[in-house]
Amino acid sequence: MDKIYIKIVVLLLFLMGEVAAQTVNIGDLSIAPNTQFVTLFDFNNTATGDFLNDGNCIVYANFKNDGLTTYSNSSNGKTFFIGLQQQLIEGTQISHFQNIVFDNKTSLIPIHLATTIAIGNQAEFNTGIVDAASFNGKMIFNENAFHSNVSDLSFVDGKVEKIGSEIFEFPVGDNVFFRPSYNGTGTNSSNAYTTQYFHENTGSLHPYTNKEDTILSTDEVEYWSVIQEQGSEKIVLSITLDTNTTPSLFFSETAETELAIVRWDDIQSKWINEKGIVSDASVGESYSKLITAQVSGYGLFTIALVKKVPVVESDLIIYNALSLNADGVNDRFYIKGIDKYPDNRVEIYNRWGIRVFAANSYNESDVMFRGYSDGRTTIDRGEGLPAGTYFYILKYNTGSRMIEKSGYLYINKQ
């Protein structure tokens, strides 16, 4: 087994007659690959400390970083927060973890995050909710970073930032409720968005009575904050409905109403209707429904029942179902009549807000969506996109005005 090269001291602090020990790094602490470093005591990486973890670091107590905590890009360094007690993660400097595991069973909310930590590869949420909201903490997922095992038993109660342009589920919730949101982060790898979920009223600064006329009833017990930290692109946002937190009213659409995402607009000082397409949860997902819309700004979002938009008379016929079973029938997204309006654009997104197709001058012959992604996706292009509900946006110029239509598109592979 490789050696660990360290320069640390273990301090015994005599406090009120009791002995309290902590591991303090004042120099270089390097954990080599295939090496395990365990600290039963509070770990303190001081301002002069450089902590490089390319192996396995197991932390059973508190973790403080005032220096450099990082890893080498060629390693699989992993840091475990394992419960013998509630654990505080703090410090004046950002802690960079390549892989991190939360597995603390001492209480329902055992991890207190009072600093910023950045994940380079993977965060495993096994057991224990990470409370960042109460301690002004933040978890950042760098480009290509992801997470696993998120549930009501383990998520981030507080701010989560995502950098990059790949598919991402924000692992956010509040109290004991995991309530994720999704948004495509655009096409630029430097784009960054911060999201937080609140199971509470938005307060007097955002009165629900200030709203567009189309909004009938607003979900007043939960909301999401979505902030664009870097970038200038509009996003397609997906937020979740859950019977544990979302009022029953919003599971009962009528012939005159439909669900929509609404956003508080600071300039107009009112809630505005961002519209949306609703899809049911798939097997294994932690929520009941998902609603997706391309939103026009950022800030506070929630769910609302709105007046159903009347169908605008059009000479276009949109066929919103594809059957990818190789029989040559209904194997493309067909918009009858679009050839009359060559100044057009079609964009298609999956239910998590990731764009899978975009084209200008969409037509009835060659520039068409056939169920294969031309965007970033982990799906094998040869296999086509998976069956399910997608979201389209069509914009076309009639010569006198620009018309925009949106709706759902269903892909069936049988």
UniProtKB/TrEMBL annotation:
Pfam families: CHU_C. It comes from the Bacteria. This is Gliding motility-associated C-terminal domain-containing protein. It comes from Flavobacterium geliluteum.
